Amino acid sequence: MKLTPGKLAGLKNLADKRGVIAAAAMDQRGSLQKSLAKEKGGEITDANMEEFKIVVSQVLTQYASAILLDPEWGLPAAKARNKNSGLLLAYEKTGYDKTEPGRLPDLLGDWSAKRLKEAGADAVKILLYYTPTDGDKINNVKHAWAERIGDECRANDIPYFLELVGYEEGVDEKGLEYAKKKPEIVTKSMAEFTKDRYGVDVLKVEIPVNMKFVEGTKAFGGQKAYTKQEAKDLFRRTAEATNKPFIYLSAGVSNAEFTESLELVAESGVKFAGVLCGRATWKDGIPVYAKQGRKAFEDWMNTEGVKNIQNVNERLKAATPWYEMYGVRSEAELVGA
After folding, report:
1. DSSP codes joined into one string, 261-289
2. Burial class of 327 by CB neighbour count within 10 A (0 to 12, 13 to 18, 19+)
3. Domains of the chain: total
4. Secondary structure (3-state) at 227
């Protein structure tokens, strides 16, 4: 396996000294604006969105190897980040097309992989809602979409991070029925987008189980979908679906639940390359900012936010350098494409 110079440089910039991707995520847009407005009881302006992201970036990038931001409200936050922290920029529009079946994605109309790179991105990130059960009519559209972005990233020699979020129409994604289906959806999605035709460099994937349904965990809510041992087996099975580096997303769960899931990953022996962790570090600060303003939010981030990211980082001791997941022992072995 060889990587082109730009892709190799980008991945190095996003990882820590160990080669682990210990990244923070702050590219939430529509959902963040709604949450802030709800807590404030009024309108959230562009300036509010930028300010919130600046505070998160300033604090978390002191402890994160990189941060994921959006080019709509996140560019001031990108400039405010710690100089040793890498930058991923999101390329997709927030949300998905609700007028058509299949949660079809779209790209930001006035951005391209070239423009994201010019804006300072070390990598391009795309979010794709995906389930193998949607059938060829919908998934062929998504496959072609992912291929086009892969070609753009190849042409601009920049890493391509693909974030996969599973679902099943008509099923509550937080419920027991979906919890039982989730491991297969995650596994098949990872297997599909591992194919070279997509040009993905790093997969950003969900924890393949819902921890609230794992019997014997602190997060367990009383209904069982899997035992702890079965959950560990499912972590291993999903990991076997790819030969690419993959990192876990926090998917909006609490810090305690996400860190417990990472502990279970470590117990399973799965080789994962790190995390892109967003709301598990900063979401509890939303009401603080909305009701008390920037200074109170800065204070909260510098105490609770720091504690949250340090909790995650502690669990990353079990992570594997991203380049080892390409079957090499050092980054130098990947040079020469």
Report:
1. HHHHHHHHT----EEEE-HHHHGGGHHHH
2. exposed
3. 1
4. strand
pLDDT of residue 336: 56
CA 123 vs CA 12, 81, 160, 242, 243: distances in Å: 11, 16, 6, 20, 19
Kindly compute the dihedral angle of the four CA atoms of residues 111, 153, 168, 68, in this order, to the nearest 10 degrees.
-70
Pairwise CA distance, residues 101 & 311, whole Å: 39
Tell me the per-residue pLDDT of 133-148, one tens digit each, with 9 for 90 and over: 999 999 999 999 999 9
d(CA 316, CA 18): 10
Q: What is the pLDDT of residues 215-262, one digit of tens each?
A: 999 999 999 999 999 999 999 999 999 999 999 999 999 999 999 999
What are the start-end ranges of the H helices in the chain?
5-14, 30-40, 46-60, 75-80, 113-118, 136-155, 176-193, 228-239, 255-268, 279-282, 286-292, 294-300, 306-315
The CATH number of residue 314's host domain is: 3.20.20.70
pTM above 0.85, yes or no: yes
HSE of 28 in the Cβ direction (CA atoms, 13 Å)?
25
Q: Quick check: helix, strand or coil at residue 292?
A: helix
Domain that holds residue 167: 5-334
